[in-house]
Write a structure and sequence with these properties.
501 residues; alpha/beta; 6-stranded antiparallel sheet; 11 helices; 42% helix
Length: 501
């Protein structure tokens, strides 16, 4: 290669390295959408391939020049440093490729490696160029003037970038602080950004004979954000009557333009029967949310175990899809209990996830297996859990299913020594409301004041605050109507409330 070709290659080499760092930092910004982030990651990957190709060309050119230079004895200092930088850059490139392919959740390591590779690349090109400048330029010559001012310019640019990065980091920390809840007044869906939205049914997929996944398009103007495991509260119109039901989001919250639910048909369940038999694309429904404290958070949960029964798989599949979308490499174990092979919801999706998630394993347990079933049979047991969950000390356990299953699963985990703070559960069973008076008290009428609406209401024994609010036209968001999900939580300013669930 000619001297000019070497210079052009070196400039392209440093430019690609700098562009890769910028693209990587832009892709890691929290404000980036999923589509934009995916495009930037693809661009970074292409830039990485180009960088490796240019590096190979430069190494080959350098080796050819060394072979034909005829240098005898000790090599010049700048040349020795040049060779050392090459040998340092090679393992760093290999390490970055390894982390990018196998440990994608280590984003901080990738950033540090990317910036280090850029700095070494710059030095790799700058050292021979500046050495040539300095060798050919005497005091007061133009070459020395250019070299000196270029060094100063680079230092100033680096200082400006450092200060800018610190300013952006400070602003990011300020914006990420959790706002304080007002000292008085109820917490409503509007305050939490969960105002009602109109959803359009665009697709239905049959999962099992009595379970169906419905995909709803989210309005473009609605900024929908949920956490994997949360649910929505829907206002359905069935046979001319308006009925409220809540369903867990079964799709990954990474997808902001649509949301999916997977209702199971229940005997005498008017809404579930309607959704599994009559709901067609084009159906419009009003929904609010997301709600619920049962969700996966990758910042807190570094290892998880999912234990589900029947339709309790719906929040779990949302978590798994979310983990797959973000390419998180945390260990995940799913123990899924159903009655028969035909009752396995998301069977194809579970098989797919087992192939794409390197640290995911799941086990099925059938209570009514057919003669050809070779897997686990029976019910959830302590032996089943301990056999497939080898690490009981670090994971967070997520439980979801019918009431009896939940009680049994919780008891098993307690027996195995799992602390309560590592057990999160979402029950589809109903809470039992007590209508009995407290000991020593006679049933009476209590006065309830809703401050924001200014309404003063008389509440008789046996009625809930939610029922009282609905009766008097006070809008309070709600989900399960059983006191389990927390969607209707309202701040108590004064007085006392008895929780009967």
């Amino acid at each position: 290669m000619s001297h000019i070709s070497d210079i052009v290659t070196g400039i392209a080499f440093v430019t690609v390295a700098a562009a890769n760092v910028v693209v990587m930092l832009e892709a890691s910004r929290p404000s980036r959408g999923v589509t934009a982030r995916s495009g930037l990651i693809a661009l970074h990957r292409v830039g990485g391939y180009g960088f490796v190709i240019l590096f190979c060309i430069m190494v080959y050119s350098m080796s050819q020049r060394l072979a034909g230079s005829g240098i005898t004895g000790d090599l010049p200092t700048y040349l020795v440093l040049h060779i050392v930088l090459v040998f340092v850059l090679v393992p760093l490139l290999l390490l970055k490729i390894l982390i990018a392919r196998r440990y994608k959740q280590s984003r901080s390591s990738l950033k540090a490696l990317g910036i280090t590779i850029f700095v070494i690349s710059f030095l790799l090109v700058a050292i021979p160029v500046f050495s040539e400048f300095l060798r050919s330029a005497g005091p007061g010559r133009f070459g020395l003037w250019v070299a000196t001012r270029l060094v100063i310019a680079v230092c100033l640019v680096q200082c400006a970038l450092v200060f800018r990065k610190r300013k952006q980091l400070r602003a990011s920390l300020e914006s990420s602080r959790i706002p304080e809840i007002p000292a008085s007044g109820p917490v409503t869906g509007h305050e939490n950004g969960n105002s009602p939205m109109t959803l359009l049914l665009v697709q239905t997929v049959q999962q099992t004979p009595d379970t169906r996944t419905l995909r709803f398009q989210v309005p473009n103007e609605k900024r929908f954000g949920a956490k994997p495991g949360q649910f929505l509260s829907f206002q359905w119109t069935v046979d001319g009557q308006r009925v409220t039901r809540s369903y867990t989001i079964s799709s990954s919250p990474v997808h902001e333009n649509y949301v999916e639910i997977t209702p199971k048909r229940m005997e005498n369940g008017c809404v579930s029967v309607f959704l599994n038999g009559q709901a067609k694309p084009g159906l419009v429904v009003e929904a609010s949310g997301p709600y619920g404290q049962f969700y996966f958070d990758e910042r807190l949960h570094k290892s998880i175990v999912l234990i589900a029964a029947g339709s309790g798989i719906t929040p779990m599949i949302s978590m798994l899809s979310y983990i797959d979308d973000l390419k998180l490499a945390l260990p995940v174990t799913l123990l899924y209990c159903v009655r028969t092979r035909a009752d396995i919801i998301f069977q194809d999706e579970l098989v797919r996830l087992r192939g794409t998630l390197p640290h995911f394993r799941y086990e099925l347990c059938l209570s009514r297996p057919d003669p050809t079933w070779k897997g686990r049979s029976g019910h959830l047991t302590e032996e089943f859990v301990s056999q497939h969950v080898t690490d009981l000390d670090s994971p967070t356990f997520f439980l979801c299913g019918p009431k009896g299953f939940m009680e049994s699963a919780h008891q098993i985990l307690s027996t195995l020594g799992i602390n309560e703070d590592r057990i999160l559960q979402e029950s589809f069973g109903e809470g039992e409301r007590s209508t009995e008076s407290r000991p020593g008290e006679a049933p009476g009428v209590e006065t309830v004041v809703f401050l924001r609406s200014g309404k003063v209401c008389e509440n008789s024994a046996g009625s809930t605050l939610l029922e009282l609010a609905e009766k008097n036209g006070v809008q309070i968001p709600y989900g399960c109507r059983q006191g389990l999900c927390g969607a209707c939580a309202t701040r108590v300013v004064s007085g006392a409330v008895q929780m009967n669930i």
